């Protein structure tokens, strides 16, 4: 049973609040929502912020591209690996203390990263930042689901989802502005400032809540989940860089797969005492919500892999302007996330999710059909807007479906599962759509290199940015090489987008057939209407 600044109540099988529990008033609930969203924004901004400073990091630390990628990816790796265990610990020992501790760790680590003078210190600081983020991220959503009454929970989750979805783009824009205006070290000022605000608001307004459990903490499940996530995320991050058949990639795949099988087997044995009761994936809500988030976040991440080179290499825009160009998509996503709960209340979560998936797929198809070098930004803007609306409509009911499937005493785990799904989707989308883009580019440019000297031609095959950099070595063919690279990139873009359309079409059919049927916002441990099912 949750405790909100009140003595612990004895567990109630119905999951209803005890009569003596203090329920925050409307003003405090608004403050709580702002506090957890500010904390979430600090975490989300740090996921993507360093991407805009890769050249600066390479110069500052005299680091290879591989090392720079590790500085960026080690944060995501530690974050994803620790979400489930730390979410469960927060449920048991108190969500407010876990949130405060996470903010402190995250803030200190961000300050160390901003002041780092060596690669080793930077990597350690980023690793510690991921630990702090894993303490923060699941708790922010768990605070909402354990504090807000059922009738307001959907709207609050919609706001949280909008920040989680659009916050990354906003963070990239602010990061790009700081890099252009000052230096890459100022990238860490933004998360530190957000942490300070979140700490003050959490201390003042966020109630503590923790759950009693009759079972010992599932240490084996926690450890196997960490190994599984580390192994599989490592494969997705390093496969494109090292090669999918490289020894390190294959070892990561084998270790991750064995640990994942071991985790599922162990959790089935533990049943009600499990860290994550995997039997719940038989329910439409948990399975449908998880699969939808995995695919939608994968497609979103893959879109960014395609859009940034298009803006910078094809259109010749700066990093700041390229990030600004994504803002309409982020705004539509955040607006649609706020609209989704009301739409779900009217037409149901399954129809809302399906509508969002259909719009997102249509946006992908629109971009694939009309994108061109000469069409510029206007050839992709309509598809971006449709994608933003579609993702916003699908993410909020998917998140609600996941949190509603687990009982109130496991909301930290439910929130962590939601976050792990997002991280896996992101890594998967970057790896797969990025690979499709690269393969399509290489295939298209080969037929356009007639007459180009061998050296620049070989360089051009490596990527569009490489081709533009080598164009001055091609003599009279310089302009032709640049144009060939840009057109080949657009061809690769279309391959990746049509693959995304196929994936979204499959997801649309799945959600129509197996999407959640119960009303959103009805947790598994609260009474459901008589006609609700969890097939």
From TrEMBL:
One of its GO terms (biological process) is response to antibiotic. GO terms for cellular component: plasma membrane. It is found in: Cell membrane. GO terms for molecular function: transmembrane transporter activity. Keywords: Antibiotic resistance, Membrane, Transmembrane, Transmembrane helix. The chain crosses the membrane at residues 32-53, 68-86, 98-117, 123-144, 156-178, 184-203, 215-236, 248-266, 286-311, 317-339, 351-371. It comes from the Bacteria. PROSITE patterns: MFS (PS50850). Residues 1-21 are annotated as: Disordered. The keyword Transmembrane helix applies. Residues 32-517 form the Major facilitator superfamily (MFS) profile domain. It is a multi-pass membrane protein. InterPro entries: MFS, MFS_dom, MFS_trans_sf. Pfam families: MFS_1. PANTHER family: EXPORT PROTEIN, MAJOR FACILITATOR SUPERFAMILY MULTIDRUG TRANSPORTER MFSC. This is MFS transporter. It comes from Streptomyces liliifuscus. The lineage of its organism: Bacteria, Bacillati, Actinomycetota, Actinomycetes, Kitasatosporales.
